[in-house]
Amino acid sequence: xxxxxLFEAKTPLSIEEVSVSKPSPHEVLIRTAAVGVCRSDLHFVxxxxxxxxxxxxxxxxxxVVEAVGDEVSSVKVGDHVVTCLSVFCGHCEHCVTGHMSxxxxxxxxxxxxxxxxxxxxxxxxxxxxxxxxYAEQMLVxxxxxxxxxxxxxxxxAALIGCAxxxxxxxxxxxxxxxxxxxxxxxxxGGIGLAAVNAAKIAGAGKIIALDPVAEKRALAEKLGATHSxxxxxxxxxxxxxxxxxxxxxxxxxxVGRPQSAATAVKVLRRGGTATILGMMPLAEKVGLSAMxxxxxxxxxxxxxxxxxxxxxxPRLVDFYMRGLLDLDTIIADRMPLERINDAFxxxxxxxxxxxxxxxx
Length: 360
What we know:
Low-confidence stretches: none
Shape: globular
Number of helices: 10
Strand content: 25-35%
Distance between the termini: 13 Å
CATH class of the largest domain: Alpha Beta
Radius of gyration: 20 Å
Number of domains: 2
């Protein structure tokens, strides 16, 4: 199969022929239809996060099941599926207590003594984030994908695999926004825009979007933001506090920078909660001051929107099919796999929302 391979951090991906193994028990072979280009991939490509090389990035995908292993029971050949990097085992403490996105059980991976899922000749190609989706095919554990309505367009469905699961999940699962509460979203890329849209669906009162790019602020307002503010303004946080009459109930950070995390904390009202979604540089820390703690403010992470994706993803698909979830607005560009490096260049500029690589 054709795939975009990263041989070394801080170098362009190379389109190569890669061999994919046959499905073992509990594995599913998927013909990739579409993959979103997420900033999380860029962190690995640019070397901010380490990963064994060579590897194939890509983790926000949708496709069609081509083959299944002997013991697969959750999907069948011909199913349209969305993949999710937070593969779960189903039997560890995290899974059985309802925190499936935190599962790290090694049983979802191939044993080290088994042949690799991906290879180039005698060389192993390391699977990234359980998926490696910048490829014509994906070989994944059955708990890394879920069947969806076949009427759902797969280029839009791909976004649900990460951006929407993370952004909307932060609203529906991690923060549990109550109708009428105020929400501030810091950063209006794919994840932030999904959070804005979800806050509208959840019945939030004021939804305030912060971003330095005017076009992104306009998109946020189209998706449900009641107010938008230039994140680079020296008075941005003060404006949020004024608009929300004392600060917001929930602040969602969707950028991955210490400054934006600090803003998320600053705009909270007493007892408010800041949820950090962005991938920060590994050496950075985010915290609360003594006065923040005395004010009852809370700070939390929200890995992959605290998802239960076998349930959440079909529901998000249903939201789209009913016209509640607007995925069309989030997509900025569609392109073939050969343009993957162009997509990363656009991400580095910071002006785009979501590019989608489409196959065939």
